[in-house]
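REVIEWER CHECKLIST
Item 1: Sequence provided? yes
Item 2: Single chain? yes
Item 3: Sequence as submitted:
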Amino acid sequence: MQPFIAAALALLAVVVSTVARASCGAAFCLVNSAWDLPGGADDPGARLDLRYETIRQGQPLAGGRRVSVGELRRHHDEVSTANRNLVGALDFSVADRWGFNVAVPVVDRSHRHIHNHGGGQIPEGWDFRAVGDTRLLGRYRLSDNAPSASGDLTAFGLNAGLKLPTGRQDERNREGALAERSLQPGTGTTDLLVGGYATRFLPLADLSWFAQGLAQLPVNARSGYRPGARLSLDSGIRYEVDGR
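Item 4: Structure as written out by the authors:
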């Protein structure tokens, strides 16, 4: 089963990476919380989680190549975007194997670009704070392994859910100009979420690693806008200090 899970995650990465495109400003970094590790939310019950993330995008790219601002002449020359997200989540474990997570972000975003018009260059910017799109994510643990310090794979499973179009799509700047759709707090679309995760103990007591892959696939469009598919991969080390 372990090679099958690894192969499935690798295939998911290849498939999604062939259709992924970079967005003009929107960025989130919702990492795995390693639910299935001892001390996590593997016993029935609820848990609240609040986290802050900051992502600054200040290097324009053309494909995978770095370019300077204005090097590729366009109607808008992108300069920078600063994303500051406060994410609140409610995690609920129904049973040993089943659970779900509801996450709602508050997006604080600043964007700057240059509007090339009539031979002139007009600086433009947007600064707003608003609720973003809600994510509903369920999980199911496939492994039967009991937690141990043997170094064996102790947990692996699947994640699936939806991103709902709850975020605003009408943010404007002080001049009344509507922000580009990719900058808005919400995409206006419903997206399918599907992926998998794994955790494993290390020889050192109470130390373990986790890894997760999650694909976000839009299933519809809104007002002519359809965001690109996304693939998020994250991994980390977890150390349990004590039972709390």
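Item 5: Key structural point noted by reviewer: The first strand starts at residue 45 and ends at 57.
Item 6: Recommendation: ____
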